[in-house]
Specification:
584 residues; alpha+beta; 8 helices; 17% helix; globular
């Protein structure tokens, strides 16, 4: 295993050329007694007894360790040579994700602490660097048995079971360093305004003094052809600009983004100080609008039926970490080949490289938080912090069209009767809307909803006649109680929102090495295809249901209800599944 795996640039919407990937072999140690800091491992002078392949967690085979046991405190150590091209620059150390708490030292000096297992963080390590022989040490602390921790599908018991899977502890996304000037572009926020054909560019800088002569040059290109170029002065660390694109977009002739035509604009930022270039960043954006028009869920102002598949984002050898960029791309391609136009990333804040391929190839994504299982005040603090970081990280992706902070009352198990938990769900809805007013938000996907933009139902009924009757009218749909759950709680009622069935199916077929299960079963290929059609058709043709999400894309460990096996082999020909989705 070498750096050739996961060697691509990890932050595809803010790309610099002067960077170094730190994936690959690191020294590694368990610290079950939590003695490492007392032994001064953080100083970087002690070698560790194991080797691990970053960015794979020790529980995964691709880490080179493959130990599924509980080890909640682990340490990493790596000697790093700083490239000559970094000399005279600020050096920024980035972590894509470390589960759950991370403390970072460089040459014995603490440079970062981060809490939250699914979101990125970075540190300016310039002042901690030596001329030679730099050592990075990371201490990661997980709380594997704490059911109030935002965890997604990571199980708190020893062995995977039911709908819960192998845990992830420590580094599980790319680690890298990059070089920047004192004055540089820290982040950019893109907001497309489809109706006026403008892109709003909110740029955030580092190091801009009030008396500095700083300017920002912005070049926008579409398919190699210049669209617009602008240069303007920067007097503070934040600047907002709205740029007209002047493009004819209707009748399919223009440049709007959709799954059928994933048009992307390339944008280049050049920061200048006294006319000299001090920073260059490449990015992209898509002109896309998701809205509810006259009760219809609409993409680019037109009603649009979302045909999603539930995607857990697990891999046989990497667990939460995809083995390669090709594997990420292939998941997107397989989803589209089966006739789906989107994916609900379930209980996982997905790797930005996945979102990049969805942007590029054209796949809608519902961004969903990794939930806790039980409620507490400390859970609220941790969960709210991580969700805000996730929205900030992923705001620019045109593929993301819906936010899902809570699923099936996870983290709020008593929401039916508990006013505090109802208020938490309501606060997550409004918090999300306050951070991003451009996308629909679901307060609690599946059931027991408070205020919500979409009225989403989870229903694993397998009989076609029952589904046909249940979704034959709005009254029947909102009166249903799948899983014996109320659809609305806290005094809220259905108020005309688009109705979607966002979990259904779950048909188990073809056991793997795992002892498998599903929500219903099939005996052979013909039976499986027939049962797929029996659950998809009544949802697809319903005049009430505006979209659906089939469970699920792949088998995951003991769950064998995927359309593909865990190693991504189709259970029946992809064209059969596509025909069912398209009603052919």
């Amino acid at each position: 295993m070498t750096n050739q795996l996961r060697a691509e640039y990890p932050r595809p919407q803010h790309v610099r050329q002067n960077w170094l990937n730190l994936n690959g072999e690191w020294e590694f140690e368990y610290d079950d007694e939590n003695a490492g800091q007392g032994l001064k491992w953080n100083l970087g002078q002690s070698s560790f007894s194991k080797k691990i392949q970053v960015p794979f967690a020790f529980q995964s085979k691709l880490s080179g360790i493959g130990d599924p046991d509980f080890h909640d405190t682990v340490w990493y150590r790596k000697a790093v040579s700083i490239p000559d091209s970094f000399k005279g620059k600020r050096v920024i150390l980035h972590f894509g994700a470390v589960d759950y708490e991370a403390s970072v030292w460089v040459n014995g000096e603490k440079v970062a602490y981060h809490e939250g297992g699914h979101t990125p963080f970075f540190a300016d390590i310039t002042d901690a660097l030596a001329d030679e022989d730099n050592v990075i040490v990371v201490k990661a602390v997980d709380y594997s048995k704490d059911v109030t921790l935002p965890r997604g599908k990571q199980y708190w018991l020893q062995d995977s079971a039911s709908i819960f899977y192998t845990r992830t502890t420590g580094i599980w996304q790319t680690v890298w360093i990059e070089a920047v000037d004192n004055i540089h572009l820290e982040k950019v926020k893109f907001t497309p305004h489809l109706d006026t054909n403008e892109i709003e560019v909110d740029a955030y800088f580092k190091g801009v003094a009030s008396n500095a002569k700083i300017s920002l040059k912005v070049d926008i290109v579409f398919e190699g052809q210049p669209v617009t170029s602008d240069i303007y002065s920067i007097s503070s660390n934040q600047s907002k600009r709205t740029i007209g694109l002047q493009d004819f977009n209707d009748h399919g002739l223009g440049r709007w983004w959709s799954p059928e035509k994933p048009s992307l604009y390339d944008i280049q930022f050049t920061v200048l100080e006294d006319g000299a270039v001090v920073d260059e960043v490449s990015s992209y954006f898509g002109m896309r609008k998701i809205s509810i028009e006259a009760g219809k869920l609409s993409l680019n102002n037109r009603p649009y039926q979302m045909k999603l598949v539930l995607d857990q984002g697990y891999f046989p050898d990497g667990n939460l970490t995809p083995p390669s960029d090709d594997a990420i791309r292939r998941d997107v391609e397989l989803t589209k080949e089966m006739g789906f136009n989107g994916a609900r990333k379930h209980q996982k804040i997905e790797d930005p490289r996945y979102l990049y391929w969805c942007d590029k190839l054209g796949l809608l994504v519902w961004g969903e938080a990794a939930n806790a299982y039980q409620y507490s005040n400390d859970y609220v603090r941790k969960f709210t912090k991580e969700w805000q970081e996730a929205i900030e990280r992923d705001y620019n992706h045109p593929s993301i069209v819906v936010w899902v902070p809570l699923n099936e009352s996870w983290g709020v198990p008593n929401i039916l009767i508990d006013k505090q938990q109802q208020q938490h769900a309501l606060s997550m809805y409004y918090l999300t809307k306050s951070l991003d007013p451009t996308r629909p938000v679901i307060s609690n996907d599946g059931w027991e909803m408070v205020e919500t933009d979409l009225y989403n139902i989870h229903d694993y009924e397998w009989r076609e006649d029952v589904l046909t009757q249940r979704y034959g009218s709005v009254a029947a749909a909102i009166a249903a109680r799948p899983a014996n759950r109320e659809l609305s709680v806290g005094g809220f009622e259905y108020s005309g929102q688009p109705i979607l069935v966002t979990e259904f199916g779950g048909i188990a077929y073809k056991k793997s090495e795992w002892e498998g299960w599903g929500y219903s079963g099939a005996d052979n290929d013909e039976d499986y295809a027939a049962k797929l059609e029996a659950v998809i058709k009544p949802i697809r043709v319903s005049s009430v249901v505006q979209g659906y999400c089939y469970t699920q894309l792949t088998d995951v460990e003991q769950e064998i209800n995927g359309l593909l096996t865990y190693d991504r082999k189709p259970k029946i020909p992809l064209e059969i599944i596509r025909a069912i989705n398209e009603g052919i």
